[in-house]
Structure formats: structure tokens, C-alpha cells
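Reminder to self: C-alpha cells first, then the designed residues, so the page reads top to bottom the way the pipeline ran.
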């Protein structure tokens, strides 16, 4: 959907903070499925966590991603997603070796052609209870996603390392051009 805009890239690169700024400006946003899953799984002592069962985690992220798309389908304006089905299917492919979900997204589940990516930024990267991988793993993820988004024809647009207001301005200005 042309009004569904993805924010993706390096874990710990400021996506969630940028999403919060866009929401503060009155724009529709959807929180990253992964963070929601981790919080829920930790609350119930579940095992669908990326550091315990990556395949179960990715399958749940795909389910939530599809649910988020259905929920926001009737929204008339732009909707900003912190990650997408493409990110989730990438994780599933790593866990299982199965590329079929990625192939299905080439025609189904499209988003705005311009994808906004946060680059690795070691000065702001932190591990926490929901992000337990290190910076090197985050960089690998960034590179993998960049290649994956290029393949189905998305335009990978790197968000500059700047203040959160400048980053939000960049995204909105780029979409207007």
C-alpha cells in the first residue's frame, strides 16, 4: 500500500524514537512487532523470543505484521511502521532456511516504494531487556535487510544521523518530493 511507510535498518539506530516523534506530530504509527512480542513473552515466561526460539518469534512477528496491516488498511493517510513483514520474514528465513515467505512478499504485502533505514550508529546503540544482541549483530542485520529490500524493488533511503526532529523532518520532506 502506497501509504504504508517502513522505518527499518539497524537495531538500536533510533527507529522507535523516530516513530514516537512522528506520532507526536499527529501521524499514524505502528510499533515494532518484535518489541511487543518480547514484552508479552517475558510477561508470560514464553519461549517465542529471538534468543530462545527465533523461528517461533519470527512467525509471531509475521502474524502481528499481517494483523497490523489489516488494522491500518482503512486509514486514509500515511502510516509509519517500525519494521515490516519483510523484516519478519527475513528473521524466519534465517531461523529455518525457508525463503518462501520472502518470495510471497514480492507481490503481496507491498509498502510504499521508499523505505527509510537507520544506519548503524554505535554512539546510540544500547542492549536492553528487549534487545539482547550486540552491535556487530545489529550491523549484520542492517546489511542483510538492505540487500533484501533492494531485491523486491524498494528504494532504500538512509536517514541521516541527526537530531530526532531533523530525522523526522527528513522523512516527511523526502516523502513530499
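Designed residues (177 positions):
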Amino acid at each position: 500500500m502506497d501509504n504504508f511507510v517502513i522505518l527499518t535498518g539497524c537495531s538500536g539506530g533510533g527507529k522507535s524514537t523516530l516513530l514516537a516523534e512522528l506520532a507526536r506530530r499527529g501521524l499514524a504509527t505502528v510499533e515494532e512487532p518484535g518489541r511487543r512480542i518480547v514484552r508479552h513473552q517475558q510477561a508470560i515466561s514464553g519461549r517465542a523470543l529471538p534468543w530462545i526460539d527465533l523461528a517461533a518469534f519470527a512467525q509471531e512477528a509475521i502474524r502481528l505484521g499481517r494483523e497490523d496491516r489489516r488494522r491500518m488498511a482503512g486509514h486514509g493517510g500515511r502510516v509509519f511502521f517500525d519494521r515490516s513483514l519483510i523484516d519478519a520474514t527475513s528473521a524466519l528465513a534465517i531461523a529455518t532456511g525457508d525463503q518462501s515467505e520472502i518470495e510471497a512478499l514480492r507481490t503481496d504485502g507491498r509498502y510504499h516504494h521508499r523505505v527509510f533505514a537507520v544506519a548503524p550508529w554505535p554512539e546510540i546503540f544500547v542492549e536492553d531487556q528487549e534487545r539482547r544482541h550486540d552491535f556487530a549483530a545489529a550491523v549484520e542485520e542492517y546489511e542483510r535487510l538492505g540487500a533484501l529490500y533492494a531485491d523486491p524493488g524498494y528504494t532504500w533511503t538512509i536517514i541521516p544521523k541527526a537530531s530526532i526532529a531533523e530525522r523526522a523532518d527528513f522523512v516527511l520532506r523526502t516523502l513530499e518530493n
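The radius of gyration is 15 Å.
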